[in-house]
Amino acid sequence: MTYAELQATTNYDFLRGASHPEELVIAAKALGLAAIGIADRNTVAGVVRAWAKGREIGQRVLTGARLDFADGTPSVLCYPADREAWGRLTRLLTVGQRRAKKGECHLIGGDLMEHGEGQLILVVPPPRLDGAFEAALKRVAGEFLGRAWLAAARPYAAQDLKRLAALDALAREAGAPMVAVNDVLYHGPERRPLQDILTCIREGCVITEAGPRLEANAERHVKSPAEMARLFARWPEAVARTVEVAGRIGFDLGQLKYEYPDEPVPPGKSAIAHLTDLAWAGADWRYPAGAPETVKATLRHELALIEELNYPNYFLTVHDIVHWARGQGILCQGRGSAANSVVCFCLGVTAVDPTAPDHDLLFARFISRERDEPPDIDVDFEHERREEVMQYVYERYGRERAAICATVIHYRPRSAIRDVGKALGLTEDVTAALAGTVWGTWGDGIPDDHIRQAGLDPQSPDIRRATALAGEILGFPRHLSQHVGGFVLTKRRLDETVPIGNAAMKDRTFLEWDKDDIDALGLMKVDVLALGMLTAIKKAMDALGIADMADIPEGDRGVYDMLSRADSVGVFQVESRAQMSMLPRLKPRKFYDLVIEVAIVRPGPIQGDMVHPYLRRREGIEAVDYPAPSPEHGPADELKAVLGKTLGVPLFQEQAMRLAIEAAKFTPEEANGLRRSMATFRHHGGVGVYGEKFIGGMVARGYDRDFAQRCFRQIEGFGSYGFPESHAVSFAKLVYVSAWIKHHHPDVFCAAMLNSQPMGFYQAAQLVRDAREHGVEVRAADVMASGWDSGLEELGSVGDGAQLIRQSAVRLGLRQIRGLKREEAERLVEARAAGARTLEDLARRANLSRQSLELLAEADALRSLGMDRRAGLWAVKALAPEVKVEAQAPLLALMGPSAEGDFDLPAMALPAHVAEDYRTAGLSLKAHPCAFFRPLLTGLGAVTAAGLKDMKDGRRLSVGGLVLIRQRPGTAKGVVFVTLEDETGSANAVVWRDVFTANRRAVMGSAFLVVHGRLQRAGEVIHVVAERFTDLSGRLAEMKNEGGPVARLVRSRDFH
Amino acid sequence: MDEGAAALGLFVGQKATDATALVPGLATAEADPAADRAALEALSDWCARFSPAVALDPPDGLILDITGVANLWGGEAAMAGDLTARLAASGIPVRVAVAGADGAAWALAHFGAGTTIAAPGEEMARLAPLPTAALRLEGETAAQLARLGLTTVGALAGTPRDQLTRRFGPEVVRRLDQAMGRAREALVFRRPPNPWFARLAFAEPISTPGDLARAAGDIAGLLCARLEAEGRGARRFELCFHRLDGMAQRLCVGLSLAGREADRIGRLFAPHLESVDPGFGIEVVTLAAEAVERLSPRQPSLDDGARIALEEGIAPLIDRLAGRLGAAAVWRAEPYPSHAPERATARRPPLSESENETWDLKRPRPLRLFSRPEPIEAIAPVPDDPPVFFRWRGVAHRVRRAEGPERLAWEWWRVAFDQAADPVLVRDYYRVEDEAGGRFWLFRAGLHTGGAPAKWWLHGLFG
Questions:
Q1: Which residues in B lie closer than 8 A to residue A162 (C-beta atoms)?
Q2: Which of A544, B261, B347, B441 is most enclosed, with most CB atoms within 10 A?
Q3: Residue A803: its pLDDT value, please?
């Protein structure tokens, strides 16, 4: 008995299909189906996943779509018979999607006829068979003569057999023979509850009221050939026909051969010749003293391979984009494996020299003949100017040949519990409370005590259902969104490979496939990414007159000294709490140390428990040795080449991969499978199957089991955030550059960082504070002195001759004032330049709105006009009579000098000023809020943050401050890190899981907190291990002693 | 929010789940603004004993104009004391302030200390230390006044009026004037309700059943005459017999269509009169009409004939059936969207307009559905062919024709989640016809699993 299921719906038919494409394919394989056809409604978004799974496990997967029409034409299942027909199907879907708003597709019957050549068509009968359907069926059968069938299912409704008999008769009459399908919605019957929930979410109803919108039973799963034969016992030919239809489909996604767009090359030159010329010219630029022989040799080797694998056009494309950006003065840098390539370095795509001593980057990791996968070049651009680059790409290649790929938005724990709870009829406060218990991802559901803490009963059946189903829906695709910058560029029309739909943003389009799909099919893409730090670095380099990052001197001792002190607020990547506690232990002395620093504080090494061994070896406490197999299995130093650079401890993704090959003896195919499953691990947890092979392979060859298991845990960790060495090298470059600027020019650094916000880990208040601690004078934003951006005001210079260092004060920009519009601020600056010297003058000439004037006054930016914020607000409000004018209406006519009598407002106390500074600008230069509470804090036994460093390890103490950051790293098993800030500095508290559970509210909710606990000191790294808390958030309101509750002064940033 | 609750860390505006998390075992109830409003209105009606002019100040305030009435209590203080004591006796805490201006009274009631009586001319002195919020200033205005340091009524009053108006518009000064009695507020005083109510007092207490029936008829006549005069009818009537000993006995009848026919209403009360215990006699009878609605005077015309006949014909019948059997016993079945046959009908009032009167013909359902399926013995080929034979109530039936199965899985959200996919919770329904032409709706409970013999049930009869 053979059967092919021709009507399967995946969960990429959003809120309808209740199984992942992979699950359907696995079920088809297990049941022995000849083929399974994926036909989602008006989309092919899920077919690549199904196809890739099928290729992996040896199950034939047919790729098509169910087409629903807006004009009453009956729905059809459409399977392209060949490559050209596939192109017509994707163009058809593109037409429908471009016609509709994002996420929708409007088709009419005529579209199908237009793109019908080569399509196999299965007509899906409507619930009610009537004359109109009969006519439509005959029309389709006539149009698609010999290529049309009628799909018939047995859903176990009351009158199935009667209906089938009627359909069979219709099919014979129309000449579209009946084909058996099961109209599959999920892989197994146990998914029915989830499918019902999806229906409710889609229909926006509650399960108890959904009624007939739900399926009546659990029969819409993948069924075996024997079962299908039994169900269609009276129509065996309908079952046999399924295989016949499948046999006529000659198209396979593997036929989508990629053709790279031709780049313009000078006449008479081939692409490779042009690339070669560019690369050698680049080499002269990179090595002004002449390229060393190793570089020349590598360059020749790479160019030969690029020519052999036919990638020159790809390199020319990337070069073109980067070259254009350079010309526009946009800073960019390649990241990822491209850093292994000297060609990329010479073309200016990447900024690190792969041949530099101890970089030891290998071109083979970028492109290899064996792997036969297209190179992946990701380029970061300044985040404020990335859009310009994207517009250039569109302009250069046209909309038909360039598009951004999709990002699949999956159900995350919060959205899952919210949608499922709503569908189950839980009230909003209950679902909000449940969602609130979730931090980041959850593995095995929500722990009962979290539910209890949220004020709910974990034993209640409603809660159980909600959490169980939310767990199932987790990872389901919810909708497609535009990827941040992954461009796919083609030679042939792109919409003949994949449908292109509208994005939410006007005039934006994106592909239906995401980057995993693009990878699986072997298409090539260029990632045009945005990186905030590049913006800051560019602004700083402009201020300092530095043209290129390469011009910044390397190996500066002072920079490494600074980093070794963990003095790294604002420095790229190494500014987080975790990195700051690593810096003093690692004590970076050279560039490669920064590479390790960037890579080591990552889930991979942490989960693999590789961090401490590495540090111990580095500190010389532990001897450097190399794990070795038993003598009969190989030389004892077989891993020395792999692990030599990292003292025998695997830290990088490449090393873990090399271990699989060298130590666990993976075949290249297995290693490739492992690598691929690591890339998709996040969504589907596919690494596990390689675990046995990996650990078993190493143990069998005489490796220590514990070491093997740690290595594999590390691989699992890489799965969630892969971090190859080349990537770390690119990032380390930015670490060094930003640290160099911070060390030598803290004033420039501060201004550049402020002008690039939002970015990085810290907010303006911390950046300003850090700059002041480094002796930078920071001046308040003021209407008579500030521009929109923060600027530098020259103070003079110290030293002389070559040692001359100019020093500047940072003048905060008007951008720091919350709510102030840029255009108005710029008009104000123009008016000032044109000579406006009074409030009235500024307001009139710059045509400022009342709202902006009030914002300026309330932010205390009128000081140079002789008014504090209170007097300023009083004056501003008098500028025009407050008759019901629109808040936004510009003050057109301003009155002459007012003849008001004198009236003195009460003076504002300093704490109230500080509170207002925080409210209006998020920072205060006048004082730190904690300073006002010092007596209270002292009364509670709290020492200052700065005082902690003089305390003995293990001492019980308390420390209090504003809560800056709360963090619960996924690698830290429920531990929460809280960073507090007082007037002397910041302090880190560690809250262990049980203490956190008992004090959840104080830890999560407070803005001003005293932590009581025990000091823990490891070298220069100091933590307070929390035991209990005093929440002082309510006391902050006292700063405004004039009544009215103060909102949280500092918004803490919570990292999940 | 009382002190005990505040001490536990609860506050107004807190999320219910947060509060429960803070105080495990906290009893919570849904907020019901409509009921709060109704209660405030009821309290306002009750306050009519103090003053004829009571205005609502939602959500929780009342304003009484006591001009000229305080002396009935022996002064404002005594009156305030009486009001406070009476409300306290009913468990209603209250803050009272008496002042010459509405705004001042509002400010003192909300922000003053305890019961405050401001003598004429004293308003400024008493209000000066209160926060500006006491002037009912809200939003950005209130926030900006605070930022300017003008945080008290006194500070605001000390600010030049022209400068205030210039900056904040007329609102601030107007509110200040309202508090100082310099500007009057337009208050909407609530008129006491005019209930549809009739009262019949007897010189001599009555107690015989005949007298009670006559009294019921008489009072119905009184009220119905009023209803007729105002073109109204009612759906519910409450008859109350007030006994000499102060006890009151109530009877209630409802109509399916609003009505005002005194005879009919009197007759509807008749069957219930025997339940009335007159004790030592009944001195007063009252009748209240509820759910009063506009009813056009009867004007039967020829073309309306059929409709009138139906309503006039069936409505009294339904009312009498409901009167005899209880209102719950008379209903109409209407399709309800559910796959579960037991739940697929909804009971509606007999003459209500139907909402979705469509039965799905593709899913035939028996005319008579047993409220409890009856067990039968049946023989059927596995796994899911229709039965060929079954025995019900001892009688054997040979199946001649059959249709099915129609597979209905149980509503998983009504069972524990780990049983949601249990194959036992599935029914295969068959429509079968026996040799005698009888048509039955049978089902097998659970899918065929090859284990225990299948259990069969009869769930209904067609025609």
A1: 403
A2: B441
A3: 52
